[in-house]
Amino acid sequence: MNILSRQGGFAALALAAAAVALVHHALAQSAPASPSAATPRPAPTRPVVTVPGMPPVVDPRDLYSETAAGKLSPAVAGDLARVYVPNLRGDSVDVIDPATMKIVEHFKVGESPQHIVPSWDLRTLWVTNNAEGKTDGSLTPIDPRTGLPGAPIPVDDPYNMYFTPDGKSAIVVAEARKRLDFRDPHTMALQYSIATPGCPGINHADFAIDGRYAIFTCEFSGSLVKIDLPQHKVLGYLQLQMPRLRFKEARLAPGKVWEPGETEICTAKKGMPQDIRISPDGRRFFVADMHADGVHVIDGDRFTEVGYIATGLGTHGLYPSRDGRRLYVTNRGTHKIHGGRGGGGGVAVIDFATEKVVAYWPIPGGGSPDMGNVSSDGRWLWLSGRFDDVVYRFDTGTGKVAEVKVGPEPHGLTVWPQPGRYSLGHTGNMR
User: Fold this and answer.
1) Which of 54, 17, 47, 43 is nearest to 321 (CA)?
2) Residues in contact with 109: Cβ distance below 8 Å, sequence separation at least 6, in sequence order
């Protein structure tokens, strides 16, 4: 197995975490130093001054401190333990009981459901039905106490949805419109919009530790856009760098377990950034890039790229562990937007402190892990199998995977309930 650095060096990547750590140590000794491999940054100790209305940052060294296992809000008491799966081509949602690994509810929603998004106040799960290529998008509310849907609300092009850190607005990501629509978080009445003309395919986001800005990925231009939230304006765009090498697109042979085999010169002129997540100390943003086969490391305040971590073919989703020490990275197994079954997909595990891959979890027979989240106790990583019509449940201790058959083309599933005081949206960007 191979792993790439920004300088194009290689090292064998073993499946066992200990072996991977040794490999990365050897690579660090032989390869030129990169910004992401620098000595650990000193942890901030001063209190974080947040935007008005945003809940305080309890631990400036770890903004995920309140999303640890067991820290469930009283707001979710009595909510059903469920995994909610939007089936993009089925216009439906499958509801899985994680205790039995069985589908216990199935209901129709609007056209092209993309993500299931916990509300800022944790009381509603919103299904974003963006009706791809049409103008009749909608949001379907789900009551997490019953696991059942309510009446849909018409909303233009809701590909994804986030919430401002103060909870005053839902941010509907109108991908096809190159626009962010800020709406009342309960009624979804439009408040105002921010145009992002330089961000085709505006997609996923995460927020500064103090809530003053957000960074969104631009899928079709290989770039990022930074948004000043209090001032309601675009601060700038950042073009992401492509690595010299990336993994070859290859089908998995029957009965084989995928490993990131051969590499090739990267001929793609721009990336295809997907998910984005902030580091526990709030200083870095990690950006999954489906064409670069890895994670770009961004200094959020300076809005500059400072590193790159190769993770696998078709890097897509990012999920912090419940202890805030590791980042689970999904690799969809293809550079294509629409891939085939049994691809070379798997999960890479990045250590936040060292910014290195420390484990890789393959899918026997191949697969296409896409989006999801971590169970409330941190034991399981649930992911949609985008091109295989399944849901994966990875054991976060061993990497062992189990599957549940679901509807056609599952996408942004969410696990509920999740620890945290409030949700910033997506499939559970909790704080």
Assistant:
1) 17
2) 86, 91, 92, 93, 127, 129, 138, 140, 149, 152
Q: Which residues contact 139 (CB under 8 A, 6 or more apart)?
A: 110, 126, 127, 128, 129, 152, 153, 155, 158, 161, 188
State the Cα–Cα distance between residues 92 and 193, nearest whole angstrom. Answer: 29
Q: How many residues does the chain have?
A: 431
Q: Which residue has the tokens 């990169």?
A: 34
Domains of the chain: 2-416 (2.130.10.10)
C-alpha 3: how far from its chain's center? Answer: 21
Q: Structure tokens of 409?
A: 């083309």
Cβ neighbours for 59, distance < 8 A, ≥ 6 positions apart: 65
Mean per-residue pLDDT for 125-129? 98
357-365: average pLDDT? 91
CA dihedral angle for residue 104, residue 110, residue 114, residue 116, rounded to 10 degrees: -50
pLDDT at res. 366: 87
Beta-carbon contacts of residue 68 (< 8 Å; ≥ 6 apart): 322, 323, 324, 378, 419
Peptide bond between residue 417 and the one before it cis (omega within 30 degrees of 0): yes
Distance separating alpha carbons of residues 297 and 280, to the nearest angstrom = 13
Note the pLDDT tens digit of each residue in 7-21. 343 333 333 333 333
